[in-house]
Amino acid sequence: MDRTLPFLALLVFLMFFGGGFVILVSFLVVGMLSSVPPVADGLTVVLSLLVILPISKHLFAAMGLDEDSSRKLAVLTGIASVVVFYLTIPRACGGCHL
Description:
The protein is about 80% helix and about 0% strand. The chain has helices at about 5-35, 35-60, 65-90. The chain starts with a helix and ends in a 10-residue tail after the last helix. About 30% of the residues are buried.
């Protein structure tokens, strides 16, 4: 239980940090490409995950997890970041209503 709370706190922080990072990169990519957002969203997510996944993996490994567990948690963090991104920007999911 002593180690669970820091891992959960780091996972939640990285999830929202990743979602915010994807949003930031989205605005930068859309501004640079001068294209419509749906075209740039795929590139935005890929570029952001290329940064988020290694950072998450190294942070979890630094907290004492083994290689396999930190890799799985990094992937979970990346997926959760993309979900946060698509839930916080309505234009990304075509104006979906929750």
